[in-house]
Amino acid sequence: KAGVTQTPRYLIKTRGQQVTLSCSPISGHRSVSWYQQTPGQGLQFLFEYFSETQRNKGNFPGRFSGRQFSNSRSEMNVSTLELGDSALYLCASSLVPRESTDTQYFGPGTRLTVL
Amino acid sequence: EDKVVQSPLSLVVHEGDTVTLNCSYEVTNFRSLLWYKQEKKAPTFLFMLTSSGIEKKSGRLSSILDKKELFSILNITATQTGDSAVYLCGGGSNYKLTFGKGTLLTVNP
Q: Nearest residue of A to residue B94 by CA position?
């Protein structure tokens, strides 16, 4: 079974631009979560989606948004990019939607660099 | 605000040593504690713990959860250079994981 896939793998943008990252979960998984990983802050939760609904959101500004499609694929968008948004963005999917938490399987990440 | 603290932040050992990594948590509506190993790529799943006092094992790795004292440990016996990685623990609740900063383990030959 294919794992979680994320595109693109690497991205370079300049301040003020916006970016859209894509995540395809493991087949059959319906929950998708997004995380930002930086050397200083570690791995931080952005948001989680199930059945096209956001069920939880982390402490990030409104410039960070996401959505999920009916096929469970998810996108996240960052508008008005800042230098501090440079990070590895990880997507994770999980199988059991009813549980409050379930094992999450991570994709390879998108490395975003903001110049 | 949910918080997960891992210790030590880094550790250097020799092959064959046994190591214990610590994870304490303060997570509202706690449901599970997960351990991941991260090399130069995405975190890979190791264990999920939901019940106190039940040890989970996989080869040389084992982990246990203490829900009364709000901590978990990850043990690695007979370490190998391939165990060198960042080990992350995350506390699960309300459809999210709150992660600690990780423990960087370096195993020297």
A: A100
Q: What is the pLDDT of residues B20-63, one digit of tens each?
A: 999 999 999 898 999 999 998 889 999 999 878 888 999 999 99
Residue indicated by tokens 């623990």: B89
Residues B76-102 have pLDDT tens digits of 999 999 999 999 999 988 788 999 999
- Shortest alpha-carbon distance between residue B92 and chain A (Å): 6
**Is B45–A104 a contact, with Cβ atoms under 8 angstroms apart?**
yes
Contacting residues of A for B92, CB less than 8 Å apart: 100-101
Which pLDDT does position A97 carry in this prediction? 58
CB contact under 8 A, A55 and B95: yes
d(CA B86, CA B94) in angstroms, rounded, equals 25
Contact of B47 with chain A, judged by CB distance below 8 Å, is answered with: no
Pairing assessment for the beta strands B96-99 and A31-38 based on DSSP bridges: unpaired
